[in-house]
Amino acid sequence: QIYFFIVALLISVNSYSQLTITADGNGIVDFSYGASSDWSLYSPGFDPVVLYMWIDVGQNSQPYSYDDDWNGTLVNLSWNGTAHVGTVDFTSYNWAVGGVIPTGTTITDFNLILRNPAGDNQTGNLLASNFGYSLSVLPVEEFTTSAISIYSFENRINIKGLKSNESYTLSIFDTMGRQVKTITSNSDSVDISELHTAVYFLVLETAEGDIIRKKIIQ
After folding, report:
1. Distance in angstroms (rounded) separating the CA atoms of residues 32 and 204
2. 218: burial class by Cβ within 10 Å (0-12, 13-18, 19+)?
C-alpha cells in the first residue's frame, strides 16, 4: 500500500510539474507547461504551443456547452525562457461555439488539448482539474476604480465618466453568451431600441484599458 501511494504521489507531482493551471476564482486562468523540462506529456519540439479548450454542459451552470474551433484562432502559450505560459480570461473569452459565457456562470471544470498550430502533434484530452484548476464564478460586475458608470434608460445605454472624446468599444451579449451588438464610439449614449426586451450583459472597454461589465434589462 505504501508503494502504491508513493507511485501515485510521484505521478501527481510529475503531472503538475509538466502542466499547471491556476484560477483566481473569478474567471482568470493561468497556464504553465514544461517548467520542469519534462515533455513526456507532450513534446512540442521547436513548434509553438497552442491551447484548444472546451466546456461541457455538466461543467458549467449554463445549460450550454462552449467550444473552440479546432481550425480557428486558438490561445498561444508563449515561451518565457522557462516554460510555455499564457492567461485566459473566461469573462471575455469569445468561444467559437457558444460565444462569451454570461456573467454569473459557475465553471466547475473544463477540457483542453495542448498541440502545435497544425494540429498534427498533440496531447490527449486533458481535464483541467487534474492539473490544479479550481472552480470559477464569473463576476456579474467587475469592481474597478474607474469613475465610468453605465445604466440603461428608454432604449438607450448611457455612459457617465468618460473623458473628453475618449473612445470605447461596447459589446452586448444575450444570456446565451451570443454577441448581439458591438459599437466603437466616443458618444455618451448608445441606441439599443432594436434589441428585444430581455436581460443583456455589457462589456465596455475604453481606449485607456478600463473594462466595465454590467447586467441590464432592456
Report:
1. 29
2. middle
* Stretch 37-64: mean pLDDT: 89
What sign for the dihedral angle of Cα 169, 98, 195, 200?
Answer: negative
Nearest to 66 by CA among 109, 130, 29: 109
Task: Look up residue 146 and give its amino acid.
Answer: S
Instruction: Report the pLDDT value the prediction gives residue 213, as an integer from 0 to 100.
Output: 77
Q: Concatenated DSSP letters for 171-191?
A: EEE-TTS-EEEEEEE--SEEE
If you average pLDDT over every residue of the chain, what do you get?
A: 84
SS3 label, residue 8: helix
What is the signed CA dihedral for 69, 73, 79, 84, rounded to 10 degrees? Answer: -20
**What is this structure's pTM?**
0.62
Name beta bridge partners: 84.
33, 79
Res 181 pLDDT > 70: yes
Beta-strand ranges (E) seen in 102-155 are: 106-107, 111-115, 126-127, 136-137, 149-153
Cα–Cα distance between 68 and 72 in angstroms, integer?
7
Residues 37 and 144: their CA atoms lie apart, in Å, by: 39
Q: Is the C-alpha dihedral spanning 137, 68, 12, 83 positive or negative? A: negative
